[in-house]
Amino acid sequence: xxxxxxxxxxxxxxxxxxxxxxxxxxxxxxxxxxxxxxxxxxxxxxxxxxxxxxxxxxxxxxxxxxxxxxxxxxxxxxxxxxxxxxxxxxxxxxxxxxxxxxxxxxxxxxxxxxxxxxxxxxxxxxxxxxxxxxxxxxxxxxxxxxxxxxxxxxxxxxxxxxxxxxxxxxxxxxxxxxxxxxxxxxxxxxxxxxxxxxxxxxxxxxxxxxxxxxxxxxxxxxxxxxxxxxxxxxxxxxxxxxxxxxxxxxxxxxxxxxxxxxxxxxxxxxxxxxxxxxxxxxxxxxxxxxxxxxxxxxxxxxxxxxxxxxxxxxxxxxxxxxxxxxxxxxxxxxxxxxxxxxxxxxxxxxxxxxxxxxxxxxxxxxxxxxxxxxxxxxxxxxxxxxxxxxxxxxxxxxxxxxxxxxxxxxxxxxxxxxxxxxxxxxxxxxxxxxxxxxxx
Length: 440
Prior knowledge:
The protein is built from 26 helices and no strands. It is mainly α. Among the domains are: about 1-65, no CATH class; about 80-180, Alpha Horseshoe (Serine Threonine Protein Phosphatase 5, Tetratricopeptide repeat), CATH 1.25.40.
């Protein structure tokens, strides 16, 4: 009798197991993914967490693409970082799997998960590894990453990373991603990309991009941009040719004539000045309505000086310096002709007069660009220390890093990370530099 009962319960257990197993198989592979996701959401909102997790996993198996993000966020908040990372890898932002370990000082695991994300063709993860491998001097890994980036067809991510590196002054990496964008069927503004190449001093690449990609009849400042590039490579004849096309052959609406043409006239005037044709330069400035602009008055004063008309130059400059409101424009002009010493002097005067606190940041930027990091940091602390701008905070952290105070830099980056995970890249840089310092 006991044997019969034992067999009975074994059969019952097998049947229950088969029903449960088949129901799970059904849920995972045959049920509607959207319905499963809704069940998961409903249970999650009711705090039935285990049931919600089960349905999220079933929804993922059934093909719902939002389920991995929900699971990743849940495990991340519970501080179960490995589980979170494993689910982040399955989202449309797999690079986040590496970000969470950067913020916990775990470079080894960050690299592991960034690499997993790169295996899923994440260009953003590749950008993170690029900085790490460059600092660690892993040249073979660098070459593989660069090859992947150059062959990528993901224009959205390429552009996102290009802007990230460009805006944060990582010139070498920005250039790599910019060049990867050139052969793509990119739907954005090629003149904007060419402008980035121009600012990175890759004038030939900017010309190539404009001539092969941009549509001149759809871009207002196309000829002027080409003229600026040719001017920088000392091809003044072609520069003048394109400036004149903008001024005399292109006809746009009134707003373009109001804003673009005066700018082009100033460029042409500067070109005449470079060729020592000072009378033509003065004539071009006087024909432009922009001579009322303070910055251009300063430029005219400079041209008078170059032309040997010193008295007129000094009188014009004297008139401008009487008004403290003009200090920022004087700083902007001297910066444009790369006279940093005078530019910093006038921007500082503007700050001291209390005319524009934004000029304080310009001083910090110029000092940073001159690699005077300690002076830049002291000036920042004096005038911008209470700023709530994320951009200012990031730059303060950068200056702490440059002056070797890595702990303060990491502390600021961590707080910024809580608002935006992309700050993880700065944390990783500081951690590696601190590690290198400790090992040296």
